Amino acid sequence: MPYFERLRNFWFPDLRAFVWLLLALPALYFFQTFIHEGSHATAACIASGSCPKLAPFPHQNRRGDFLNGVTLADPATTVTVTQPNACDNPTPVRTTRMAGFIATPQFVDLFIILALSLLFFFTTFTNPFVRFLLRIWYLAACLDFCYNTIRGLVAGCNITADWSRFMVWYDINPGLFAFMTWIFWLVFILSHFVWVNWSGWGRETVPLTGFWDYRWIAFGLGCLSLIAVLVSIFISDPAIDKSSPAFIILLIVQVGALCWYWIYFGLTFKYTEA
Known about the structure:
This protein is mostly helical. The chain contains nine helices and seven strands, in the order αααββββββαααααβα. The strands form three sheets. It has a three-stranded antiparallel sheet. Strands 1-4 form a two-stranded antiparallel sheet. A two-stranded antiparallel ribbon has the order 5-6.
């Protein structure tokens, strides 16, 4: 069917592009976590006039909860408010929390998804590497949006999650909140359907890529992974447990990816394909 051919042409134009999509995931994980936590920090900075510290790497906190990253509030970036603060208790309580709109990352993700969808619809880039970079950015925003909002589709609540806090803190009816979440998901799904089905992007044939053609992609991913490793090592806080398997194992994965990106980048100067 033409639609599925266009869909494959977008996500898997050739085998090497698909393999590099997988190889990009460690660097992409850090990139999207930085965007997510940076959205929190920006919202807090606008609301309080002071910017909190970011820790955009996976870890466990001292309570044992796994976090993809965290924005660390301090007295200058917090506000004291009276609001509901529990999934099963709508009674407002006096609470100190980080300033800013809690669901900022999800709305930023949705904006990125829609902006890229419009770009895909109205443009037909033929450079396979420009397409690759836009594709992985789109994938990162989609994964972050879905991961953080999927519980909202059934009006589920987890007070440690941003999307649930949005529902609880603003005292939104769970049924209404589920309906709103479904609307956002339909916008996300339909945007994908529209540009795949009618845009030139999915129909345009691009040159096949060779194994050694990803030199500058590897360079960019290597820079991201290097920053991820340095940030993971040098940013610390009493709330972050760096002795946990979540931190150690995923740091090893990031170091492995870093080594691969730079070794590959170096070898491309020796081995090239016509």
